[in-house]
Amino acid sequence: MILDAHSHVHDPLDAHLSALDDAGVDRTVLFPTRAHPERATDLDFLRSEMGVLERALAGGSGDDGFALAMRELDEALAAHPDRFLGFGSVPLGRPDAETAARVEREVIGRGLYGIGELTPPPNQAALVEPVLRAADDHAGLPVVVHGFAPTTAADLRTLAQLAARYPKVPLVISQLAGPHWMSAIELARAIPNLHLELSTANIVFAVRLAIHELPTRTLFGSDAPYGDPVVARTTVERVTSPGEVRDRVLGGNLAELLGLG
Predict the structure, then answer these.
(1) Which residues form the Amidohydrolase-related domain (predicted)?
(2) How many domains does the chain fold into?
(3) N or C: which end of the chain has fewer CB within 10 A?
(4) pTM value?
């Protein structure tokens, strides 16, 4: 089974399903999103949508945007339960009790597979700890954290320290940590519950080395609509040979992480 470990709700959903079909992807992890760059028809429209993304990555969200994103996620999961593996996000920087209650309500209550994609502001990755604590209370729900800019090298070190503090919780760093990919691989080698998702890597040998060093903890992902499932799968297949390792990266590792039969 081919499993994409990273995608966001599309508008319209049919465009996403078509891309998954083109890539031969059976199912994909689906995160809520406040930005929809796939809607853009010109540069000004795209700048507007990317501005929404930039504000989210800087820590600005607001409960209205969060609630809308979760409604869109619910609708997508209801429409295509056979294709989407839902993850639910929670706002960061809230009191521990509120975070625990939101995980209970927004993730467990919705029957979702994990938490993410979390987007702490730069140099504030410590804000993720209450979420990890809540995930630990629920038998180690997987938690996915944004890895590309504006995530910093200091954030990666903080996330690694947090992962070591909560060893039952699989912590997934997305986008192969962007420009900090070498540090991410080094950190993950030392911490058994730290995983790396490979989407949008712009250096092919970064993907090759990550898989070589962490064959059981690297995950094929597209980050669609920012990346493309066909391109992401092709990259994995260009740097691996047919066999067990490729099969694990393209789906087996994620299936184990999510407890899929």
Answers:
(1) 14-260
(2) 1
(3) C
(4) 0.93
